[in-house]
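Appendix B. One record, verbatim.
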Amino acid sequence: MGKIRNILQVKGNVVFSVDPSVTVYKAIEMMSNKNISSLLIMDPFGKLLGIFTERDYARKLILKGKSSKDTQIGEIMTENPVTISSDSSIEDCMQVMSDRYIRHLPVVEAGRVIGMISIGDVVRYIIEEQKGIIEDLELYITGHHQ
């Protein structure tokens, strides 16, 4: 199985982030417009401060009766999010996601965010890898029976 860098090569390195002072409403609006379910919270120098997910919205804002227009994202983000490197294996990524009950992992190299991996990215990668293996096996089988 491959490495995280293999997923980023296909997916790209686009990362959506906001400043911690942005309102939750603006963050949710951005997530809706970009059709994403998480945002990274970064300082102006590109340092990763936290992550905000739809789960954070439901559990830390709605259930606590806070207003999305009056609450800054920095107040309810998950601080010090778990990260992964591009050299990590897909298996390690799946293990971390499973053990920690998380669906999004920022990819960090030398202290800089270089991408984001979601559980959907991992599933797509595995499906494509399995298709390739099946095609190779089919070619092998049919090639030896003619």
